[in-house]
Design goal:
alpha/beta; about 240 residues; 5-stranded mixed barrel
Length: about 240
């Protein structure tokens, strides 16, 4: 691994023409009854559709909708960084691994535990990756100005949600994880690799801490908080 970080990739990420913005926002998914996409489309200067995701050029940022999971998210991220991106905000969902986090709650990630395969190609020796303190504080301030409650948490990111077994959950809790998602640790690793800033705002969409799965994607409270928490960040800069 010595000097590998300084090596040029064989396949160089190509910029996405016309999608230059300092801030990259990633919104992997929205529940069907959350009508944020129409609002995003109204505000978009232009959009470009790819297999598995859509890019929207907004006045102050570029938004990725789709690109679920770390590998695809980071492939898109590489191209947008090549296009001039310097900051990354993930607006996503997470499963609760702690009784203190209930469906609908919002969390700002303090640090992420890498349990996916993408981040190790950027930070091979680092399992726990912190968020940008400065960017996280700015997001927190914006949400507090909206009168929204927020708390900090530790997240573990996985590529294999169907392998979240009882033993996996116990190991994750032992490491300090309070929630699980699929992209956060990879985004933080990518940002650190390139010396950029990255942060993640996640809504609790389901619960696993009782060793039974409780889905909250049909909960109106989750739909409401998608709009309340995500919408104020669409013009974030």
């Amino acid at each position: 691994m010595k000097n590998e970080k300084k090596e040029r990739p064989i396949i160089k990420p190509q910029p996405v023409h016309g999608f230059h913005r300092k801030l990259i926002i990633h919104l992997p998914y929205l529940p069907p009854k959350v009508d944020l996409i129409s609002l995003i489309q109204k505000r978009a200067i232009k959009f470009k559709q790819f297999e598995g995701f859509t890019l929207y050029l907004l006045p102050r940022n570029v938004l990725i909708y789709g690109a679920i999971g770390a590998p695809l998210a980071i492939m898109v991220g590489e191209r947008l960084i090549a296009s001039g991106g310097q900051e990354i905000i993930l607006l996503g969902f997470a499963g609760s691994l702690s009784p203190s986090l209930k469906i609908g709650q919002a969390i700002l990630v303090e640090k992420a535990i890498a349990d996916e395969g993408t981040s190790r190609h950027y930070l091979p020796l680092q399992e726990i990756i912190p968020s940008s303190k400065e960017l996280t504080a700015r997001i927190e301030k914006r949400l507090e100005e909206q009168g929204l409650e927020i708390r900090r948490a530790v997240v573990i990111s996985t590529d294999a949600p169907y392998r979240e077994t009882r033993n996996w959950l116990l190991r994750a809790q032992k490491k300090g994880a309070e929630a699980v998602d699929m992209e956060t640790s990879a985004w933080l690793a990518l940002a650190k690799f390139y010396r950029l800033r990255a942060a993640a705002l996640l809504l609790i969409s389901d619960e696993l801490f009782s060793f039974r799965w409780r889905s909250g994607f049909s909960y109106p409270s989750l739909w409401t908080n998608c709009r309340n928490y995500f919408y104020p960040l669409l013009d974030f800069s």
